[in-house]
Amino acid sequence: MTSSVRTMRAMRASGPNPASLTCETIPVPEPGPGELLIEVQATAVTADQLTWPESWPAIPCHDLSGVLAATGPGVRGCPGHRHRLCPQSRLRHRAGG
Question: How far, in Å, CA of 18 to CA of 30, rounded?
Fold first, then answer.
């Protein structure tokens, strides 16, 4: 029997230094109300992000670009469109898993 849970690869930070980054396979999150899901194609991580203990465990990213994969209730958008998000965007990173 095979699992129907879709998964993705993610770099997860669990501490204050680059050695705390691990590559994990986690479930793809479902966007909730007012949220969207971006299939990230490129991103950057800054060292400062690894010093925020209130966010551990987290999937850090700074600027990112990708494709709109899905929208939650109350969000208008066309899946398949490309997007670029920057730190000024209101962005919530769900660690999943």
Answer: 28
